[in-house]
Amino acid sequence: xxAQLLNGRQRAKELQAELKERIANLAANSGAxxxxxxxxxxxxxxxxxxxxxxxxxxxxxxxxLRPVELTKDCSQSDVEAALSxxxxxxxxxxxxxxxxxxxxxxxxLLIDGLNPAKDVDGVHPLNAGRLAAQKEPFxxxxxxxxxxxxxxxxxVTFKGKRAVVIGRSEIVGKPMALLLLHRHCTVTIAHSxxxxxxxxxxxxxxxxxxxxxxxxxxxxxxxxxxxxxxxGTTYTDDGLRGDCERESVExxxxxxxxxxxxTGPMTNVLLMxxxxxxxxxxxxI
Length: 285
Fold this sequence. Notes:
Helix content is 42%, strand content 16%. The mean pLDDT is 96. The chain contains 10 helices and 11 strands. By secondary structure, it is an alpha/beta fold. The chain has 2 domains: 31-115, Rossmann fold, CATH 3.40.50.10860; 141-264, NAD(P)-binding Rossmann-like Domain (Rossmann fold). The strands form 3 sheets. The protein has a 6-stranded parallel β-sheet. It has a 3-stranded parallel β-sheet with strand order 3-2-4, sandwiched between helices. It has a two-stranded antiparallel ribbon with strand order 9-10. The protein starts with a strand and ends with a helix. It is globular, with a radius of gyration of 19 Å.
């Protein structure tokens, strides 16, 4: 068996073209394109790299990026003041707080202080709670939203299937589990401390891996014919690696989102989709 590879790169290009056309038409009617503010504290290379990726995504669909860069030694109150200004700026439709943040900055206070209507990352407790309760409106974090979209468009059957999500982060693992639950899967959330983790993994009809450990999951962890969604993105000396050991998993799975080229390219496009939703709500289109 060789798994069907779900091409996120190609689908992302198609979605980007569709979004670009929609945004251009809406901007022509309203007089201004959507604007995304990205708040960065310090110069962490990971955050800076993500900012560059966001800049490319914004450019690709014709939205405005407004970077707000604060020095590493700024205070908690300085960051909260900058965030508050963005919250109250009607020309800003979406806000992201880039991580990691310096150790002296409490990210939970920033998330709580974020305007939920501009929370295009879907991290504010109100958006997370509305997602859990399936009560619109809410924003779905872009990475799991992209993973679900690839599965839906590949014709994956969800109802009644056993799904295992390895990883419990607020922006990937937990929301992915909720999205699967809402599609009538029976869902197990596992993690690095789960007993007999390979055995639990092998029970899954749909296996989603978002644990941040390169090539941790091998073919021995995978039920033959299972759908495997690899959210991992770790840069190693050998290049970008997912959380799954691709060769052995591909030999066993029925479908696989590869790394690179699977869920990764979908993330920033779905982020732009969230920004468009925020924009339309703000200008009442």
